[in-house]
Amino acid sequence: MKRILIIRFSSIGDIVLCSPVLRNLKNQFPNVEIDVLTKKDFAFVWDGNPHISRILSWDIAEDMNLWKQAPYDYILDLHNNLRSQLVKIRRWDCPSITISKQNFAKFLLVAFKRPLITIKPIYSRYAQMLEILGVKDDHKGLEYFGTQELVEDKLWQPEFVGLPKSYFAVALGGSFLTKQIPLKTYINFFEKAQSDENFILLGGAGDAKTAEILKEKFPNNCINLCGKLTLGQSADIVKNATVLISGDTGLAHIGAALGKPIIWIWGSTTPDLGMLSPQKPNSCSIVSMEVKGLNCRPCSKLGHSKCPKGHFKCMDHDPIQIRENLEKLSATALV
What we know:
By secondary structure, the protein is an alpha/beta fold. It contains twelve helices and 13 strands.
């Protein structure tokens, strides 16, 4: 094979989950040129990946002309939505392989709150797609290359902004409210923090209010960088953290790609939906925390803007348990 088109339009975590596909293709076919087709707003997530020949944006006319005419040997559709179907129709001349979303199995899980049909992790389904091409998975986990950035002709490093050498990273964000850890949980957690512990708060501008409240309440423990960093800089913070605490966010997937110990806190969604990142070989642990025994969870395969029941019990996580997991992972990371 000489050239392949890979389609994945969004979002941050989903794109990071695609990284083994590119690496394994390059391992099997070192000379293959790989184009990726994505949305313009997410093109930066692919930046720095050495396995990519061209990053093409769905919403840029010049790029559209390129993917319409390039001589592809295969199209790998890792998104499987209306846009990707349109691409395959336009490029009917190219054989294609499409990811199975297992939407019916997810529907049953959301409807009956138990996995009536096993949902395979997304990275396993990607590996099955590659098997069709005779490509074997190397089981080396995810990759993320966007931690190296130049700022004013200097390589950005956390110490440039006066950050401590030892800290924990906390990802406040989440694509849906029911995937975001509530403010009260953070407050209860930080009340048990030791005086010399540093927690760097990460997220977008939408998380700034929560971060400001935590910074004001715990000025000696919290460093608020929400809305102040690029994704690459946030990833660099994660890379140098002792432990990452996160809900089901893109930064959690980046943390897994960087081999960091993670406390992965689930709300309305569950790992049974297949979106938990694989742990890299010989890397630190990923600890999943879920509120068990709720007959309303999962309430969605993606999340909601508010709790359908109004009680948000799926995020009633015990701050003491979070603290215990933090201490265990910290001890492991420092060995």
